[in-house]
Amino acid sequence: MSQGSIGFVSLGCAKATVDSERILTELRAEGYEFSDQYDQADVVVVNTCGFIESAVEESLAVIEEAVGTNGQVIVTGCLGARSDMLMKKFPSLLAVTGPHDKDAVLTAIHEVVPPIHAPLYHLLPPGGIKLTPRHYAYLKISEGCNHKCSFCIIPSMRGRLASRSPRDIVEEAASLREAGVRELLVVSQDTSAYGIDLKGDADLLLGKALRPNIVQLSEALAELDMWVRLHYVYPYRSVDRLVELMSDGLILPYLDVPFQHSSPKVLRQMKRPASGEDNLERVESWRALCPDIAIRSTFIVGFPGETDEDFQHLLEFLQNAKLDRVGCFSYSPVEGAIANNLANPVDPDLAEERREALMATQALISSERLQLRIGTTCAAVIDEVTSAEIIARSYAESPDVDGVIRINPSLGVKAGDQVSIKITDSDEYDLFGELTTESEQI
Ligand code: SF4
Fold this sequence. Notes:
Elements: E1 5-10, H1 14-29, E2 33-35, E3 43-48, H2 53-69, E4 73-77, H3 83-89, E5 95-96, H4 102-112, E6 136-140, E7 142-143, H5 154-158, E8 162-163, H6 166-178, E9 183-187, E10 203-205, E11 208-210, H7 214-222, E12 227-230, H8 239-247, E13 254-256, H9 264-270, H10 279-289, E14 294-301, H11 308-321, E15 325-330, H12 348-371, E16 377-385, E17 390-393, E18 405-407, E19 418-426, E20 431-435
Parallel strand pairs: 1-2, 1-3, 3-4, 4-5, 6-9, 9-12, 13-14, 14-15, 18-20
Antiparallel strand pairs: 7-8, 10-11, 16-17, 16-19, 17-18, 19-20
Helix pairs in contact: 1-4, 11-12
Bound molecules: iron/sulfur cluster.
């Protein structure tokens, strides 16, 4: 007998996606069904994002729609940390919980649609319920953050760094592999800091001591014979050791480093981790260690106090660093962030102009970087097959945030297949290629 039907909306970043997957997995184990129509669900859960103003607005719009269409709504996630504001705006909400509070969400659901079964974990797919395609999955290695970036309220919403044990993470990764996953996207708020809160306590895994640090964890994940891709790594000196693992072919030569700016003054005002590092020197040293490394980063322009000189510093940094992939936001104040009190706010129109100028500069750089790959052959995974084209990715493209490799339709390939692609062309963001005969042997 079905338990009741849950409508679930998952908004926000990869870390929020993992939270959603955990709640959905538990609900499925309890026998609940899922509905993709608000009006057919017994209750709707909205997992919100509260990182920047546009994300807050999107979350509020979804809550409003769910309340208007269904009426039985539970809100969780980062915006849930602002429960007073939410309850004032939507007094009929059944419950509001903060991020990664799976138990509170389940309790609230049980009150509307009580569970009648003992958990049916045996009915779950190995690895639990995933919101990503079957061949890749996000693997969250810690919650929270010990930093105090002045534009960010995540530490106040998600708390201080709390790392999962190495055993727990490796066991989840092994279970994902059993479920068909072939690419792990390692996420957290600060991946380089993984384990510093665990005081070096080792887990014994297959007779080996596995210490809680990102290098040993990466080595252990690499042994599972999957692509391991690291996101949200800060440019500390210790990252060199990770780049050596990339150079040795153990993990993907891909580094997502959110630099956010280059001007030392702005970085200090932002209170960024590793802001004392010379980031250009770091990028050059990583490329010296691993020439094929693909580096992705994100930047904020229009931060309070950012002058024309600071912005020029950033453009020059981009021209010298020649990063492979770049995302950019114009600064927008987030309620509760320390940066809101900083002097000399930048006019939002000027911030937007700077964002467009940065993206135009980076488009040329990205285009040049991609042209270097024309004529090369790479291992790739197929993400999607349509009648018009096949979408694939290599080590240098992470799903959803980077470009893709587009190839002509071909019989006999399907999502999740690992293939070999010869790159034949490129534009500002994407590559174009064709399957090689070696694809049949991969
Ligand atoms: S590192 Fe900074 S931006 Fe990232 S979660 Fe921590 S405080 Fe926020």
